[in-house]
Amino acid sequence: MLPQAILCDRDGTLIEDEHFLHHPEQIRWIPGVLEKLREWKQQGIQIFVITNQSGVARGYFGTEAVEAVHAQLQQDVEQHGGEIAQFYYCPHHPQGSISGYNDPCNCRKPAPGMFLAVLEEHHLQPNRCWVVGDRLRDLEPGIELGMKAFLVETGYGLQAKQELKGKSYRELVTVISSLAYLFDLDRRGDGVRGRRGEELVT
Fold first, then answer.
1. What residues does the record give for site: Contributes to substrate recognition (predicted)?
2. 11: annotated binding-site residue?
C-alpha cells in the first residue's frame, strides 16, 4: 500500500549537506531525487520537508534565509513536475546566541513537534506515513509514532547506519542508498523491495 505522505529530512536527504546552508546558490540536489518527487506527485503522495535549522539560533542567518532556500527548493521541484506540500523547520538550539531561539522547544528533532504538526494540520494517520532521513534523529520521532522508517546512505547516512546496529528499533528501519531509490514500485503491490532492517535492493 502506498503511503499518504512521506516526511523527508532536507540536508543530506534531498540535497547535499552543506555546512549551515543559507543561500539558494548553495543548493545541490542529490541525483535522482527531483525525478522521484515528480513520480510521487503523480502517485498522489504528499511530501513534507522536516528540518532542523539551528543556524538561526546560532546567529549564522535569519529565518528569511531559510525561507528563501525553501522557496528555491519548491521552485526546483515544481519545474521538474513535483511538489512539496509544506516545509517545517525548527530554528531553535539550546546553545544558541539569539534570544527567543535558545529556549527549550518541542520541535527540534528528535523531539516530535514538527511530526505532530504535520499529522494534525493535514489530517494524516501515522501508520500511513513514511519518514526518510540520513540521521537517526530524523527517524526516531516517526518510529515512535508508528511510521515506516528509511535511512538513506547519503549525507551522514553511512555513519548513522553503524549507529543503528546498537539501537533497539533497528529492525524497524530499512537502509537504502538514496532517497531516489526509496521505492521503485514493486508491481505486486508491496511498494518496497526488501525487508525491514535489511538493505533495500533495487
1. 108
2. yes
| Catalytic residue IDs | 9, 11
The response to whether 129 counts as a known ligand-binding position is no
Q: Give the residue among 175, 182, 181 at the shortest CA–CA distance from 160.
A: 175
Q: Is 76 annotated as a binding residue?
A: no
CB 87, CB 124: distance < 8 Å? no
**Residue 71: inside a domain:** yes
Tell me whether residue 187 is in a domain: no
Q: What do you get for the CA distance between the two ends of the chain, in Å?
A: 18
Q: How many domains does the structure of the chain reveal?
A: 1
Q: Which domain holds residue 170?
A: 5-181
Q: What is the mean pLDDT of each run of 10 residues along the chain (202 residues)?
A: 96 97 98 97 98 98 98 99 99 96 96 99 98 99 98 98 97 96 56 43 33
Q: What is the pLDDT of residue 184?
A: 60
User: Which amino acid makes up residue 4?
Assistant: Q
